[in-house]
Write a structure and sequence with these properties.
alpha/beta; Rossmann fold; formyl-coa transferase, domain 3; 2 domains; 6-stranded parallel beta sheet; 3-stranded antiparallel beta sheet; 17 helices; 11 strands
């Protein structure tokens, strides 16, 4: 696929720079489009005339809503190009079909059957573009008794099974902060798209990708299924403890610290430190040497002693002791500490970009991986509505300025 002139002049080219993507995704899949764009794909964000509703999602710069002020939009649409197109109109749908002929991937999150109703479903587009990889992300997939159910991130998190095991034993199930179910669905779609593109490279064939948010979340429940399969019992909410029982996040002198004691040495080092502080109680007794069975049976007693001891120390003290002894102990960072974290800055995860309109520069989070040949994934800020209309429609479809003016006049 021929890339845009803007991309071809960028150095270095990303690993996906040979691919062009039509991004029609809403919040459930917007992160998938970002991952593709940040790795170099020419991602064209299709917005309705007037702009995508996601532009009105907060938080906002300075806490004030307004054009170009949505931090949500600015984060999830880096490196994308934007065109405005009313795909619900016959002419808009025809234009999208023409764009699809020049693209490798189409990403959408409409309800099952919606794109088909516009003549823009996979079968319709693949008839003319057999190499197209078409990815649909929906709450429950394209088939099954729940296919037409609507769902938010909250519902996806709940019906995927993760919410039931999140929180404290004495409280109702708890939702994690952020759009965890949406992000999980986007990640799975991203992986599936890469696999489909690899398959196309081998066979020349495109294919349809059906991603279920519920299934994506269910695949992340880790210990829950294992517990049930081996014991026949449903997992319970563990509060400050991990399901594995020997990983916990403890209140300490200045916040919280995570202490993992799933090895004999880690457990011995912890109780020896507690003993030096005069806070070990009976934990030095021989019966606690069995760090799995007996510790599990006496977990409530052990937790009382550890909690009293932890309040003597800071996060830094606990972290430094654990790390110096090769144990995975660490502080629970607060939200205001993340933007100042030296590790995130040192690796380039956090980066500063200048605003294209001459506004103040902003700090952007990057992608959670590094490619040695592509060190700077965030290359440009999120686009304005229809910022690339003339560029995309003339470059890909060969439309003239008169054609564009006519289309604009017709909405």
């Amino acid at each position: 696929m021929t890339v845009s002139s803007e991309q071809s002049n960028a150095e270095p080219l990303g690993p996906l720079s040979d691919f062009r993507v039509l991004d029609l995704a809403g919040p459930m899949g917007v992160y998938c489009g970002k991952l593709l764009a940040d790795m170099g794909a020419d991602v064209i964000k299709i917005e309705p005339p007037g702009g995508d509703p996601m532009r009105d999602i907060g938080p906002f710069i300075g806490g004030q809503p307004g054009p170009g002020r949505s931090l949500y939009w600015l984060h999830f649409n880096t490196n994308k190009r934007s065109v405005t197109l009313d795909i619900s109109s016959s002419e808009g749908a025809a234009t999208l079909r023409k764009l699809a002929l020049a693209c490798d991937v189409l990403l959408e999150t409409g309800p099952p059957g919606y794109m088909d109703s516009l003549g823009l479903g996979y079968d319709n587009l693949a008839a003319d573009c057999p190499g197209l990889v078409y990815a649909s992300i929906t709450p429950f997939g394209q088939t099954g008794p729940y296919r037409d159910f609507r769902a938010s991130d909250l519902v996806g998190f709940a019906m995927g099974g993760y919410m039931y095991v999140t929180g404290w034993p004495h409280t109702p199930p708890t939702r994690l902060w952020g759009s965890q179910a949406y992000h999980t669905a986007s990640n799975r779609a991203y992986i599936a798209i890469l696999l489909a593109l690899y398959h196309r490279d081998m066979t020349g064939e495109g294919q349809y990708i059906d991603v279920s948010m519920q299934e994506a979340v269910a695949a992340t429940t880790e210990h829950v299924n294992t517990t049930y399969n081996y014991t026949g019992e449903s997992a319970v909410r563990c509060g400050f403890r991990h399901g594995g029982q020997f990983v916990a996040t403890w209140p300490c002198k200045d916040g919280y610290a995570s202490i993992t004691t799933n090895t004999r040495k880690a457990w011995d080092d912890l109780r020896a430190w507690m003993d030096r502080d005069g806070m070990a109680g009976d934990l030095m007794d021989e019966k606690y040497n069995d760090h799995f069975v007996l510790r599990g049976e006496h977990s409530a007693h052990i937790e009382v002693l550890i909690q009293r001891w932890a309040m003597l120390h800071t996060r830094q003290e606990i972290t430094e002791f654990g790390q110096s002894n090769h144990h995975p102990w660490g502080p629970a960072a607060t939200p205001d500490e993340i933007p100042e974290n030296e590790q995130l800055w040192g690796r380039g995860y956090l980066t500063t970009l200048e605003a294209p309109d001459g506004g103040p520069s902003m700090v952007y989070p990057g992608d959670p991986y590094r490619l040695s040949e592509f060190p700077l994934p965030i290359r440009r800020t999120a686009p304005a509505p229809g910022e690339h209309n003339a560029e995309v429609f003339s470059e890909i479809l060969g439309l003239s300025s008169e054609d564009l003016e006519r289309l604009s006049g017709r909405g």
